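Retro notes (design track)

What went well: tokenization of the new backbones is finally stable.
What didn't: we kept losing track of which sequence belonged to which structure.
Fix going forward: every design gets posted as structure first, then sequence, in one message. First example under the new rule, 139 residues:
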């Protein structure tokens, strides 16, 4: 196992076992940032994720949201914001969040851990950008 994978997995384990139910994403994001993760790019509906770290770039495959040829949902900023707010309130699991963002027309999203910003992208180049708060993580 590479140093990049080992470091990423350690940070994710710590974050997942210590993050609060409400506002868990900023805690996860700050934990990853402190571990040297600079960017995270998700591709939907494949649920494949790239983590750019100080030790190298890691790909993490996921469980796809669709298993056959499918129409891509039309981008809806309102539906996306509802999905984000449900997640922020601790009212959805991560797989539910991914499904909701896909259903809102998101085909990829990128987290910039240094700027504390998430950019959601639709298939026609539509974007929705949201900053998230800085939180304190003690390891």
């Amino acid at each position: 196992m590479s140093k990049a994978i080992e470091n990423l997995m350690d940070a994710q384990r710590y974050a997942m076992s210590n993050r609060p139910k409400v506002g868990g994403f900023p805690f996860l994001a700050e934990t990853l940032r402190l571990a040297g993760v600079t960017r995270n790019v998700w591709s939907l509906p494949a649920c494949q994720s790239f983590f750019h770290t100080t030790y190298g770039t890691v790909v993490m495959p996921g469980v796809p949201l669709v298993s056959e040829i499918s129409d891509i949902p039309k981008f809806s900023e309102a539906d996306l914001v509802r999905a984000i707010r449900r997640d922020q309130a601790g009212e959805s699991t991560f797989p539910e969040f991914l499904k909701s963002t896909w259903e809102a027309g998101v085909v990829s999203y990128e987290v910039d851990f240094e700027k504390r910003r998430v950019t959601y992208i639709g298939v026609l180049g539509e974007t929705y950008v949201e900053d998230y708060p800085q939180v304190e993580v003690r390891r």
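Added context from the reviewer: The mean pLDDT is 95.
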